[in-house]
Specification:
It is built from no helices and 14 strands. With 139 residues, it is mainly beta. The chain has one domain: Agglutinin, subunit A (Orthogonal Prism), CATH 2.90.10.10. The strands form three sheets. A five-stranded mixed beta sheet has the order 1-4-5-6-7, with no helix packed on it. A five-stranded antiparallel beta sheet has the order 2-11-12-13-14, with no helix packed on it. The chain has a four-stranded antiparallel beta sheet with strand order 3-8-9-10, with no helix packed on it.
């Protein structure tokens, strides 16, 4: 489920989530051109929006994890390169399945072309999301 959420969020980060970093519930990544946002909603759904107005008509991708698990939720780019959405009980509700791919350090970038890309330390693409597709492609 995609919720209408007022902007700005409690936490707005850059366009990048670094390895070992956490995007907390209520947090958001913002593309450098400020046209696209990736936010972790209070219901546990990770949603990409094409506007700073977080309403369902502006959503173009979601992890489809609404109401799975228990709050608080967090998105973590783990040291092994796996991007994982955890609930408050440390249970995984979604994963990119990219563990042990590429050379550290990895980083997740929400680009100005609305792609969500996981790069390794050599700037090689490990995961490419050509949003609005609902699936992610492992390279």
């Amino acid at each position: 489920m995609v919720h209408s959420i007022p902007y700005p969020h409690r936490f707005v980060y850059s366009d990048t989530l670094a390895q070992d970093a956490v995007l907390p519930q209520g947090g958001a990544l913002r593309s450098k051109n400020a046209a696209f946002f990736l936010t972790l909603q209070a219901d546990g759904n990770l949603v990409a929006y094409k506007s700073s107005e977080f309403v369902s008509t502006n959503a173009f991708w979601s992890s489809d994890t609404a109401n799975r698990g228990t709050a608080p939720f967090r998105l973590q780019l783990q040291a092994d390169g796996n991007l994982v959405l955890f609930d408050g009980r440390n249970q995984s509700t979604w994963s990119s399945n990219t563990a042990m791919r590429g050379v550290p350090p990895l980083r997740l970038v929400l680009q100005d072309d609305r792609n969500l890309v996981l790069y390794d330390g050599r700037n090689q693409v490990i995961l490419l999301s050509i949003l609005p597709l609902l699936s992610l492609s492992i390279i």
